[in-house]
Structures are given as C-alpha cells and as structure tokens.
C-alpha cells in the first residue's frame, strides 16, 4: 500500500466494507453484552455503519453527506458503553476482519483506529453489583 492509497481502496472498497459490516453484526446480535444495546431491527444500524466505515477508511464521505459530522461519542452517549462492552465490540470486529480476510498493513491500520475509537466510546464504568445485567 503506498502513501496515496486509502485503507478503503487497499481493502477493496465498497464490496469489502459491505462484507465486513455483514460479518460483524450477526456477532453483535449474538453477544450477550452487546445485544441489549442494539435494536432488534439491525438493518438501519448496518447501513449507518457501512456509510461510516466507508468514510472512516478513506472512501467517499457517505456518512457526513447523509447525517452530518459523525460526532461518534455524542451519538453513542445514550447507550451504556462500559469497558467490557467496548472490548466485546472489538472482539466481534476482530472476528469479522478475520472472516472477510482483511490482512496485512491495511488491517493493522484499521485495527489501531478501531481500538482507539472503541475506547473513546466508553461512557460508563463497569457495574459492581454482581446481580446487575450490565
């Protein structure tokens, strides 16, 4: 990957981003920590994620064109995101990246950006009551 190639271009553009989103969300819906904070109808969330990741990886600014600035943390504040939920999200994404075979330097770049973003989304500490359902 040369310095002029975006992550988006290097992984295969729209097709690969769509594959990643489609590999990711079934994992989210099956994860006991993540399922409660996502709607049953996951399709609108998947479409927003596709638009966002396209832009986040250096493709066309589809998310901004449709929804305005991503403002990730502000848009996620209504959802209780704990450190363990951020970690669960990253685990699901790691598995999805494996499934769609994103490897090498593009994967390293993607991963470092996703790790930073996931930790930035944390807006609540872990609950300490063992009876609580995070």
UniProtKB/TrEMBL annotation:
Transmembrane segments: none annotated. CDD domains: TrHb2_Bs-trHb-like_O. It holds the Pfam family Bac_globin. GO terms for molecular function: heme binding; metal ion binding; oxygen binding; oxygen carrier activity. Heme binds at residue 119. Its cofactor is heme. Keywords: Heme, Iron, Metal-binding, Transport. It comes from the Bacteria. Belongs to the truncated hemoglobin family. Group II subfamily. This is Globin.
